[in-house]
Amino acid sequence: MLRAQCDDRDALELLLRSIQPSLRRYLCGLVGASHADDVLQDVLIVVARKLVWLQQPELLRPWAFRIASRAGFKHLKRERRWLGDDAGLEDIAAPELSPPDDLLRELQTMDGISPASRAVLVLHFQEELPLAAVAAILEVPLGTVKSRLAYGLNAMRKQLGDNRRR
Questions:
Q1: Which residue, 29, 47, 79, sits at the end of a domain?
Q2: 8 Å CB contact between 72 and 39
Q3: How many C-beta atoms surround the C-beta of residue 115 within 10 A?
């Protein structure tokens, strides 16, 4: 990271390639596969430009996810697909069990789940980040992360239940 911060192009490319797959997976879950590459490109440009200001190398990944979250939400707002979901579920405990991998893949195609909840679901279950880290990345209180997680899991259950009845 220090070499990348000192304008070493090869080090910067290596650094960006190391974080690119997880950022792309996250953005696919947040904005959809068809828009993920465009948003990812914007994110990597911001990371490359602002890398010199990052003082702690161990914070690279959460910092990059925060940039990706902002870019993804900005994209969704431009697309007018934003749905709010902070409906007072602050005190609900986060579930301990994670959904199966096939459900996480299906998450990318579910329109009934708000982007805010999708972000929490993808960061927590797919990227395996603790809820406290998800809260820091999204810059929201832990209670909000728990409510978005509960809301997203509830929406997934309802949507999957409706699809199975058909």
A1: 79
A2: yes
A3: 24
Q: pLDDT tens-digit profile of 92-106?
A: 444 445 555 665 566
User: Global pTM?
Assistant: 0.70
Residue whose tokens read 């797919």: 126
How far is the C-alpha of 112 from the C-alpha of 108, rounded, in Å?
A: 11
Lowest mean pLDDT among 63-67, 88-92, 114-118: 88-92
How far from 164 is each of 139, 157, 161, CA to CA, in Å? 36, 10, 5
Whether residues 71 and 132 share a domain: the answer is no
123 within 8 A of 137, measured Cβ to Cβ: yes
CATH number at residue 10: 1.10.1740.10
